[in-house]
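WARN  no MSA supplied for this record, continuing single-sequence
INFO  ligand: adenosine-5'-triphosphate
INFO  echoing inputs
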Amino acid sequence: MSIKFEHVSYIYSPETPLEKKGLDNVSFKLQDGSFNAIIGHTGSGKSTLMQHFNALIRPTSGKIEIAGTTITPETTNKNLKELRRHVSLVFQFPEAQLFENTVIDDIAFGPKNFGYDNEKALASARFWLKKVGLPEEIGKRSPFELSGGQMRRVAIAGVMAYEPDILCLDEPAAGLDPEARKQMMALFSEYQKEGHTVILVTHNMDDVANYAENVLVMEHGKMIKQAAPRDIFKDRNWLQEHHLEEPKSSMFAAKLQNYQFAKLPLTIADLVKDIETNLKG
Ligand SMILES: Nc1ncnc2c1ncn2[C@@H]1O[C@H](COP(=O)(O)OP(=O)(O)OP(=O)(O)O)[C@@H](O)[C@H]1O
Ligand SMILES: [Mg+2]
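INFO  complex generated
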C-alpha cells in the first residue's frame, strides 16, 4: 500500500487574475514505513504538496493513491474521515490547529473523533503530552496561554495521539530551540521505526541527512529530483545551481579538502585549535 502521485497539478484560484500554479505535474511513489523529506525553496510547493496527502486540497488534475483511498479532482469532502484517520498533517503553523479549552482536551480531540472512548482518548492524550516533552500540569491550561514552542508540541501530540499510519509534518521543528528540535526529530524517528510512514518538510539539511531515507526536491511546483540523501547531497554543483543548502558536515568536509594546517598538529588539541581558528563559519 505505497503512496502514489500520478501527474498531480494544483492551481490556486483558477481562472481568476490571481491564478497561480502550486503543483506542476508531480509524480512519485513513497514506500510504506519510510522516512521521507521534502525540501525546496520558499514558495516551491512543499506545503501545497503536503495538503494533498490527506486531501485537504484536491488535485486540479492527476490522481493520488494513499492508504487505500484514491483522490482525484472529483473527490469531495464526503467520506474522507477514514483517510484522515490514517493520514494526518501537522500544519506549517500548527498554532492554528488548536481550539479546545484545555491542552489535554485538545490532544484528546483527535482520538475521540476517531472512535476512542473517553477514557482511552484521555489516556492517549496524557501519554503523548509526556512524549512531546511537556509536563503533566500543562494539560489543564488553555492552549492559547502557551508559548509558541509549547503550542507546536501540543499540536504534534494531538496528531500523534490517534497514531496515524502516515504522519505528515510541515516544518514541525521551526522555531524550536536546538534541544527541542532534536527531541522532536527523535520522536518522529522512533515513530517511523515502529512501522509508520513519516513525511517531513524541512529547511534543515542536517535533519534530512540524519533521518530521511528518501528525499523529494521541489522547485517552482515541480518535483525536480527524488533520491536518497547521499545521492542528493553528493553533487555540490547541482545543489548550488538549485540554491539548496547542504548538511553542515558535508560543508565542513568540502572545506577540509583544500585545507592547509598552519603547522603540523601533533595533538588533538592542536588539531582542533587550528581548524577552529582557520575554518570559522
Ligand atoms: N492560498 C494560496 N493562494 C494563492 N497562491 C498560493 C496560496 N498558497 C500558496 N500559494 C502559492 O503557491 C506556491 C507554492 O506555495 P507553498 O506554500 O506550497 O510553498 P512552500 O514550498 O511551502 O513555501 P515555504 O517554504 O515558504 O513554506 C507559491 O508561489 C505561493 O505563493
Ligand atoms: Mg510551506
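The CA atoms of residues 90 and 156 lie 6 Å apart.
INFO  checksum written, moving to next record
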